[in-house]
Each structure stands twice: as C-alpha cells, then as structure tokens.
Amino acid sequence: MKFTRKAGLLGLVVALAAAGASAQVDFSKYVALGDSLTAGYASGALTKFYQDHSYPSILAKQFGINSFQQPTISDPGIGSYGTVLQLTRLVVGPGGISPVIGPTPGASGQPTNATLQGPYGNLGIPGAAAGDLLTKTGDITKLLTGHIDPKTLMYDIILRDGQHTALEQAIGAGPTFVTVWIGNNDVLGAVLSGVAMEGVTLTPKATFQQQYTQILGAIRQNRPNASIVVANIPDVAGIPFATTIKPYIVNPANGSHIPLLGADGPLSESDFVTLGASALLAQGIGIPAAAGGTGLPLPEGSIDQTGLHAGVILRAAEMTAIRARTADLNQVIAAVAGGVNAKLFDVNALFARIATQGYTLGGIRLTKSFLTGGLFSYDGVHPQRLGYAVVANEMIKAINAAYGTTVPEVDLRPYLGGETVMTASAAGLTVFSSAAAVSLLGNFVPGAEASALVPHVGTVRRHVTQRGSERGSIPPNE
Length: 478
Fold this sequence. Notes:
It is built from 16 helices and 18 strands. By secondary structure, it is an alpha/beta fold.
C-alpha cells in the first residue's frame, strides 16, 4: 500500500479563516472520518452484516459511487474482546424464559479486503476519540500474522500501513466530499465504565477544541474545494445501555419501588444503572435481601493507584456532568465547523426527537427502547442496520438542504422486514451477559479493570473504602 503524506497536517488553525465555499458539490470521491458510528460497528463488533449498511456505505450508494471501500470483516465479526453479540441461549427462571445476550461462539471473523491499495473510503475507527485521528496508526500485519493486540486491533484493521494516521489517510485519498463524525468517545467511556472523571473518561473542552480545530483545519487547508459535513454528539446518557434498567425493582404486592443497592448506598430514582448490571441482578446482586436478593451491592466505578475499575452505576450528578460535557463539545463542533464552512448535521437533535416522539416508518413507530424499539443493536449503544439507514437518510436530507443538492433519499421499507429488524425479544426479560459487558468495555475503555462486572456471589468487589476520593470529583462545566 502507498499513502501520500501531507506536510503540516497538524496545527493548521490558519486554515479556518481562509475557508471558502465550493461552487458546487462533487460527490465523486467520498471519505468518511469518525469512530464506531461511522464504521458501522454494531452488537459489539465489526462485521460485514452491519458494515454493508453503515451510514457512509449507504451515502456512497446514494451518491452513485460504486467503488466505495470499507475494511469489512467476515462473520461472526471481530471486536477487541470477542465476536458479534447475539441471543445465545434461553434460561428458564422464576420470572419466565430469559434470552441471554452474549458473543457468538467460535473464532472471530477475518478481514476480507486487507490488501486494498490505498486508504479505505470509510475510515471510521471503533473506540477512537478526536485526538486519535491525529496521532494513532495501525499495522495490519499484526492481525494477519496472528499477533493480535486488543488495544490497537481496530486501528490495525482500518489504518493498516503502520505509518499514517486516519487524518493523513483521509487527506491523502484526495476527497471531494468528507463527512466527520467524531467526539462520541470523548464522553462515551464515562457511561460504559460508570466513572465520570475529567481527563480520564471525559475529554476536557479545551483539549477537544484544539483537536477538533486541527482536524477540520487540516482538511480545509489541504483540500480547499472539498465539501465537508460534520455530525455532532448524541446524548450518550440517553442510549439504551444507560436507560433500560431502572434503579429500583417493583414490589409486586403493592407496586412500590424498592431501590437497588450500590456500593455507595441505595440508589435514588434519578440514578442510572447500565446494562452491565444485568447479569449481576440475575444473580440477586444489587437487590436487598428483604426483597429476595443477596443484599450485596452493585459495583460502582472507581479510580485508584491501580487504575480504572469499571462499575455499573452512574449517580445523577455524574450523568449531569456527562450531559454537560456533551453540550460543551457540541458547541465546539458547531463553532469550528462554521469557521471552515463545513455544514452541520445535528444528529443530537435527531436522537432527541426519537427519544420523545419516536420515528414513524411505514406506519410503524420506532423508538430508542432496547431490543423492542427497532433502532438499536444488541449492545445497547450502536444502531442496528435500520438505525444506520435512518441516520443516513436524515443526513441526506441535511445535505440537500444545506447545499441545494438532490441526492435521492434512502428507501427504508426493505429494512423493516426479515432479519434486518432483528430485535423482537422482550427487553425486560433479557440478560445482557457479563461476557457481553466485558467485551463492550474492552473495545471502548481499553485497560479498564472489569472483574466487578462478572457475578461472584459472596465475593463481589465492594469498593467501599474511601469511596468519595476513589471516584474523583465531578468535572466542572467549562
């Protein structure tokens, strides 16, 4: 493979003032920069089943591009710590039959076009934060020779040459049209790990502003005639991973709410419990003994001298901080995009509308609900194929409105049938296995210690000593 390195890609703030509008939009060479939401990652892994319906792949088809290339992975996909999630088995319990979500058994999938000459059109990297587009590279030979490093796996699959960053490869491809959807992982790690800490799971606003300015400034300076569309960050606190499990159980005798137990004490109804708690709750952990549980607490994330320890609870103040940081970063995205004459697709507003109103398609009302809503995949974080198609269609509407183009909208009707919808199980009875939780965490918060997510009744790690200092302070609003 040969990539052309562009000199001076970083620190190109001067490009912001020199941005000019293109006379017309040229879709002939499309490149997408971003993270897992750009890659078409779903149900905890990269796999062709979903990648073929990533929003960049759909956009390319609607643009009339027949040669758009992605780093596709054969079934059953590949994640840093497992394969694609599926309904693996049925468990009969006191509450009925419970489907269990876990990684697909067997060996991981393999790249199907790793020797492609030149960069992929889809350079979305699962787990990437904004700064990673500027600094990280990947080497495909590690994967092809069996030396898999979970911490770099996604970069090795997508960037491949061991030399050039995602930004360098995007510019070197000579794009005429670029989409940039980055920033999700600058806040998402706080939700997945149950720890909201400045500079650890939440990128400081000033740092993000510098990084995002470098990214868009480099694209504009090196490709002055390219059209650029950016997407902002949806409310990561509103994804099914964080909202499906309530912080209480219902007393069947009188309908009252019995608070779940965390290591810092009983939860309030303003607190959040993540899907990572599912397997623990199935073992009675987090449920008071008087209500039939073990009386052992659910783990709460912490940071100490040994590193980041993942938990399954976010207290209300932590979630408020996550949402505030998301708003901060979205302000940066809008301001920097305006400075380089990039158009903004407000995907945050789209998902906010879906959260309150749903999304009606063919007489069917889709929602953000886990498994039953139709839009999200088995990991509770990423869309499934229908969800990505909705995102692509709404982005096309935004492109046409911003540029006066007539890109045809996506026919969403085929996505309503068969296995493309795929989520019909009752979310309330479904167990998100500890293997699924650990796999997802490993992909997006590498290095986090995850033993507390695995049920060990009677020996659950409690983290009760000096809890306040371990969790750290809530980041300030900048």
